[in-house]
Amino acid sequence: DIGAKLATGHEPWWWVAWIAASLTSIKFDWIFWWAGKLWGHNIIKVMSGRSKWAAKTGAAAERLARRFGGPAIFLAWFIPFIPGAIVAAFVGDVGMKLRRYMAIDLFAALVYRGLWMYLGFRIGEPAKDLVNVIARYANYFAIVMLVFIFVTSFMRARKQQQARAS
Fold this sequence. Notes:
The protein has seven helices and no strands.
């Protein structure tokens, strides 16, 4: 929207909107980093459950976060099926400093928002429509993932309670 308005000359303070959009995009990301710092291995265990494949995948993701943390944070902004919250938890778990994480996250947000603003400037209204479609489906995907994690955690805890009671 801002890029499309900029193309028509109706957005003289575009750079303020660009920075504000980037900052609001990362405002809660530190919480996921912190969760990884506090409970990283337990989060991996909850996600993997009893599945050996999921445990191997979690271990591989942890190794990748340890080795390629910065690029993973950056790419999570541009590849729709890499959840940024999970990447943040992994890099928090493997010991990346919060200041470094937030600097990379802010840089990626600025590039990402700048790219969409440029597309809005070059394409106009159709770019705005594309952004709205992507945002709508990204929210559904995030909601489904959260529900899945909560349901599987609840079911696992309930089974463990029943096993202890028996």
